[in-house]
Amino acid sequence: AGKGIDPEKIRVTGFPVNPCLEAVRKHSICWKPGEPFRVLYFAQRSFRHAREELEAMLEADPAVYVTCILGRKFRRIYPHIRDLRAKYGKRLTVRGWTRRIPSYLAVNHVVVGKAGGATVHEVLAAARPMLVNFLLPGQEEGNARLLETLGGGGHVQDAAALAEALKNMMADGGAPWRLLHENLLKADMTGGSGKIADLALNLAAERTN
């Protein structure tokens, strides 16, 4: 509207994400001391960063379990972190390319990764707190600020800050983590795909009537 566009022509639909994330959002998830605190980690930088961050997270607390998604960087990174699987055993799971991100979101308590638009909005739709470990200046800074504004996570500067953030989430029986999760549930950042489809159908109906 500030650019001279008629406000009635502006329709806010939200970012389109996989509709099945609505079910993930409704999937009850909780945590209490003594249970695994599950982290979904997207390794999207160098093997040095991946190794440093994995070790920091797994050393932060024995309850931390990490599922590491390497994607197309599997061959480049995996040889440099293979030994960590032996060191941490079942607390570290490594996966390459996957189409099962909604399933992983459903069972993990927190997401760690780059502040890409699609990733952040999938996390918001699933109502899973996120720690941003890397962002590009510009739009991705806005994605991180959105997380902070909604009270569902934020940016961590380095591996030490990442480990500290996880420990803080688990403090007081997990109360800080529950607050982040509840904030995202209240935000209800889902339904973009459905709203866009409904808008297109309604506009089509108006033109044919």
Describe this structure in words.
With 209 residues, this protein is α/β, with parallel strands linked by helices. The chain has one domain: 3-Layer(aba) Sandwich (Rossmann fold). Helix content is 53%, strand content 14%. It has 8 helices and 6 strands. It has helices spanning 21-26, 47-60, 74-88, 101-107, 117-126, 139-150, 159-187, 192-208, and strands spanning 37-42, 64-69, 92-95, 110-114, 130-134, 153-155. A 6-stranded parallel β-sheet has the order 3-2-1-4-5-6, with helices on both faces. Strand 1, helix 2 and strand 2 (64-69) form a beta-alpha-beta unit. The two termini are 29 Å apart.
Q: Identify the strand order in the major beta sheet.
A: 3-2-1-4-5-6
CATH class reads Alpha Beta
Strand-pairing-aware structural class:
alpha/beta
Shape: globular
Q: Report how far apart the termini are.
A: 29 Å
Oligomer designation: single chain
Question: What's the helical proportion of residues?
Answer: 40-55%
Low-confidence stretches: none
Under CATH, the homologous superfamily reads Glycogen Phosphorylase B
Beta-strand level of the residues, as a percent range?
Answer: 5-15%
Query: Count of helical segments?
Result: 8
Number of strands: 6
Query: Biggest β-sheet, characterized?
Result: 6 strands, parallel
- What is the H/E string? HEHEHEHEHEHEHH
- What is the count of distinct domains? 1
* Cα-based radius of gyration, to the nearest Å: 19 Å
The CATH topology comes to Rossmann fold
* Average pLDDT over all residues: 88
What CATH architecture would you give? 3-Layer(aba) Sandwich
